[in-house]
Give the backbone structure.
Amino acid sequence: MALQGTGAISLADLATEFGDSAPHSMSEFYAGGSLVGAHNSSVPSSGAISLSNFYNATAALVLDITSNTSDYDILTAATAAGYNAATDTTSIIVNVAAGVDITATSGNPGITTGALNAASDVTINIAATASVCGFDGAQGANGGTNSAGSAGGNGTDAIKFAVTSGTGTYSVLNSGTVGAGSGGGGGAGGPGSAGARYTEFSDSKGSSSCGPGNTYGSAGSAGSAGVSGTSCRAQAGTDGTAGTSGSYPSNACAISVSAGSGGAGGAGGTAGKAVDKGGLTVTTSGSGTYYGATS
């Protein structure tokens, strides 16, 4: 809770807000120190300091997201508000307002903490009707003749904790939707090429022989592409199916061109996580929906 904006402020009020133990001294409360975050822009980092500098000061840095955005980086937003990851252990609270959609672009999570100070507590609140979604993997490309389809792309995480060796307290309170990106479907296997035999000829006496010409069989059919998962629902893409082999014509002559065996189908992409904890202890709670793992 922030300190009051008017009236008398005591040294004891500062101690309560910023968690200082007795004895108290004003020199302990410079901004950017171990107690007071640099986001409190009215508080000096050195020199003259007074109690009146602390009107509306708060121990936690609050970041409110009130409009749709993508690839939200908490470290970037906090730094813009005065946070210094090298020295600042300020707690950070991120509030995603009702109706706001946070999406991800290729390869990124919807929200990442970035490399915040290891001791900074992080709380992410997702309001009802708000959503945070990872990026959906791309559909795999279909294979050409005798070649395999490519794998579908992997989905990314909705929320990723990237704090290195974190010692803070971390939590996600979700009243909306937190959904990992889904995997893309695997590409279809390409068709097998047609095989051929030498051409069969008959002479005037009814005898048969095989000449230099080629008689071609049928090409195989292409496989089917795999299906991508539904956006923001942490579903894996399905595998593409293989193309079928080509065939030879039927005659008594030898094979002149081998039939292609067709290409394999591409593998479906995997889904990301709803909350990637990155090895940290993160509490996930709330009445909202999590699509994907929270681990």
User: Anything to note?
Assistant: The chain has two domains: 1-58, 60-187+269-291. Residues 1-58 form one domain.
